Amino acid sequence: MVDKLFSDSRLAALYDLYCPWDARGDFTFYLPPVMSARSVLDVGCGTGALLRRAREDGHTGRLCGLDPAVGMLEVAGARPDIEWILGDLAAVPGWDREFDLVVMTGHAFQVFLGDDELRVALTAIAAALTDEGSFVFETRNPLVREWEDWHLRYSGEVVDSTGAVVHCACEVDAPVQGDLVSFTHTYTSPGWDRPQQSRSTLRFLSPNALSGFLADAGMVVAEQFGDWDRSPLSDTSPEIITVARRRR
Asked: With CB atoms 3.0 to 4.6 Å apart as the test, which of 25, 61, 83, 89 could cross-link to 124 if both were Cys?
């Protein structure tokens, strides 16, 4: 389900203010493979920051962003030389070996909460890959229990495009149930009539579980890293960064 917050382009634009390029290690990791791929699909592209940067840096091939949030794509659409598609992997027409690279950044992979939902998405991604293509994505390592400090990490203030100060307070539901973590972001600003609230749930899967779901979709893990510096995956790694390819 699409969070109603991101149906409003003004509110969707807050995402890039709270998660600026320079503060994101994931974009530094993803941009080189994007630049070297002839055709790229960004699933859950949000405001399209990664693809927009790739085009600005000289990418001349096919760049396609997919997202179910209208507001996000209204922000992304400021760059019309990229394909922007409203929808999700279960609803859009199937792609058949069209992309050399499929990426999911910003921990978007974790929005697939159910086994069936995840299998449908991975099957669509596998079908979209060329025979030599790669699917690159990341999830947070559940062993690190990063959600325990989200109330500090993801709370703060920014100044929006109108000059208004916007405050965000993050609150995680406790206790955490199984591999699902639910949380709320509440946005307030002095000039607003009322607070705006974003509620989300993310799924935290182990490396073994990820490998199993990929195998069910006809893919195998080619590489895995524990952080954006490409360090090896360990129990204390903050990330599970996975490069998967079609099984041969």
From this structure: 89
* Per-residue pLDDT at 131: 96
pLDDT in tens, 172-213: 999 998 999 999 999 999 989 999 888 999 999 999 999 999
pLDDT for 7 equals 57
Predicted confidence at residue 8, as pLDDT, reads 64
Per residue in 220-234, is it b (16+ CB within 10 Å) or e — as a string? eeeebbbbbeeeebe
Share of residues in the chain with pLDDT > 70 (%) = 96
